[in-house]
Design goal:
This protein is of the alpha+beta class and about 170 residues long. It has one domain: Metal Binding Protein, Guanine Nucleotide Exchange Factor, Chain A (Beta Complex). The chain is built from three helices and ten strands; from the N terminus they run ααβαβββββββββ. A hairpin with a 5-residue loop joins β7 and β8. The N and C termini lie far apart (about 60 Å). The relative contact order is 0.21. Bound molecules: zinc ion. Zinc ion (ZN) binds next to loops. The site of zinc ion (ZN) has 8 residues, from loops.
Length: about 170
């Protein structure tokens, strides 16, 4: 009997650490230079970004498909976080997914983190900017080869900087 209880306890102990791990953010890739999270309260971004962007970035709303001009942005350049200006995607990773949202095959290494989102019945993988924590979109596994990933982004949560323009200084 004691042995059974011990085995059960061991099984619980083995599984338990995995549960909170699902909720923890996971950074995708390694940044070329370390990024310090801002830890700025969400409320503090009010007024710095548009209300529409605020609702997406800090309340995890989703914009209507086809509602962002960035869906059709096909110039060379960089897509940066609309709140803190951290570069998140290069134009070389953008592709036409015909979903009505800007879509990418991969983020810039170390600049995006994912976590599970239970807002829908089926859990989805949410992703956000590692610096300000602003929600960007969801990643799905129906993208093009070789990675097979579709990083489905709210255009409102991004800004586009063409290749011949200088990236803005990070905003804090
Ligand atoms: Zn950011």
């Amino acid at each position: 009997m004691k042995r059974r209880i011990l085995l059960q306890s061991l099984a619980v102990a083995a599984v338990f650490p995995l549960i909170p791990a699902c909720f923890r953010a996971q950074v995708i890739g390694e940044a070329s230079s370390p990024i310090t999270p801002l830890n700025k309260p969400h409320e503090a971004w009010r007024g710095l970004v548009s209300l529409k962007a605020y609702k997406i970035l800090f309340e995890e709303e989703t914009e209507r498909p086809e509602s962002s001009n960035l869906v059709y942005e096909d110039r060379e350049g960089t897509f940066i976080c609309a709140a803190c200006y951290l570069p998140l995607f290069e134009s070389s990773s953008k592709y036409e997914s015909n979903t009505g949202w800007p879509s990418f095959t991969q983020p810039i290494a170390g600049h995006i983190a994912t976590k599970l989102d239970f807002k829908m019945i089926k859990p989805r993988t949410e992703y956000h900017c590692v610096r300000c924590g602003g929600h960007q979109g969801h990643v799905f596994n129906d993208g093009p080869p070789p990675r097979g990933e579709r990083w489905c982004n709210n255009g409102t949560a991004l800004k586009f900087v063409p290749k011949d323009e200088q990236l803005p200084t990070l905003r804090s």
